[in-house]
């Protein structure tokens, strides 16, 4: 069965990927979440905020305490709704939305973003093909690392990512063709999935950390920063 990971009162199997303390080895095993403390229950009521137009797929919510704003992206877009950065004022006392969110149209799909240290109004983000800096006022993307070539956009795209305690940006790809088979339906004849996990360091260097991903998602670290986990 592998290790036991205590995270919630719901028990279910899921694939987990761990990297050891020096990030030199990967261990993949099946883990089961088990109860430790009761889950907090929040009574559902009216929506916190109604997006207008509605998001197709809202992603990457991050909160900035200095001005009490919530930032997220409509990452997919279609022929009528472009990929969009949303910024909403939040009442710091009540947590309620204040007024209408500001919308900034983006040049390309962005799926995850984080504020940059000591550079106000700028995010580091994973856009469709790699790493970019995104401007908060204009939505302009400054591409710093194009990892997926343009002629491979039908095969790969970026999905989720995270920043570790050393300020390094980790970003994971989707193998779009493998993903299209559905959960746990990839035939053996497909071979090794093509999705990859990269790490972009503050010095501008890029490091390939893992291969064989269908859809890299949910990157996180243990409290002691010695274990990286993703799905």
What does this structure look like?
The chain is mainly beta and 231 residues long. A hairpin with a 6-residue loop joins strand 6 and strand 7 (97-105). 2% of the residues lie in helices and 45% in strands. Among the domains are: 1-39, no CATH class; 137-231, no CATH class. It starts with a strand and ends with a strand. The strands form four sheets. The chain has a five-stranded mixed beta sheet with strand order 1-3-2-17-16, with no helix packed on it.
Quaternary state of the chains: single chain
Poorly predicted tracts of residues: 1-35
Mean pLDDT over all positions: 84
Tell me the major beta sheet. Answer: 5 strands, mixed
What is the 3D form?
globular
* DSSP helical segment count: 1
Radius of gyration: 19 Å
Could you tell me the number of beta strands? 17
User: How would you spell out the order of helices and strands?
Assistant: EEEEEEEEEEEEEHEEEE
Q: Which percent band covers the strand fraction?
A: over 45%
Structural class, from helix and strand content?
mainly beta
State the end-to-end CA separation. 17 Å
How are the SSEs ordered, and which strands pair?
Blueprint (H helix, E strand, L loop, with lengths): L3 E2 L7 E7 L6 E8 L24 E7 L4 E6 L9 E7 L6 E9 L4 E6 L6 E6 L2 E6 L5 E6 L9 E8 L5 E7 H4 L15 E6 L5 E8 L6 E2 L6 E3 L1
Parallel strand pairs: 1-3
Antiparallel strand pairs: 2-3, 2-17, 4-5, 5-6, 6-7, 8-9, 9-10, 10-11, 12-13, 13-14, 14-15, 16-17
Offer a few descriptive terms.
231 residues; 1 helix; five-stranded mixed sheet; disordered N terminus; four-stranded antiparallel sheet; globular; mainly beta
């Amino acid at each position: 069965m592998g290790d036991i990971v205590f995270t919630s009162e719901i028990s279910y199997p899921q694939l987990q990927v761990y990297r050891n303390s020096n990030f030199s080895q990967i261990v993949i095993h099946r883990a089961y979440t088990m109860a430790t403390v009761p889950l907090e229950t929040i009574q559902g009521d009216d929506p916190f905020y109604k997006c207008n137009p509605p998001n197709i797929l809202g992603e990457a919510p991050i909160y900035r305490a200095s001005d009490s704003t919530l930032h997220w992206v409509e990452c997919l877009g279609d022929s009528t709704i472009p990929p969009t950065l949303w910024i909403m004022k939040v009442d710091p006392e009540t947590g309620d939305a204040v007024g209408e969110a500001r919308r900034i149209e983006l040049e390309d799909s962005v799926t995850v973003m984080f504020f940059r240290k000591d550079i106000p109004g700028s995010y580091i983000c994973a856009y469709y093909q790699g790493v970019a800096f995104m401007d908060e006022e204009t939505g302009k993307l400054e591409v710093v690392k194009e990892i997926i070539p343009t002629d491979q956009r039908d095969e790969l795209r970026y999905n989720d990512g995270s920043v570790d305690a050393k300020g390094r940006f980790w970003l994971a790809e989707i193998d779009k063709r493998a993903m299209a088979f559905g959960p746990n339906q990839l035939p053996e004849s497909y071979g090794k999935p093509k999705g990859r996990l990269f790490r972009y360091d503050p010095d501008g260097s890029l490091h390939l950390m893992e291969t064989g991903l269908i859809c890299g998602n949910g990157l996180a670290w243990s409290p002691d920063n010695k274990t990286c986990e993703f799905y």
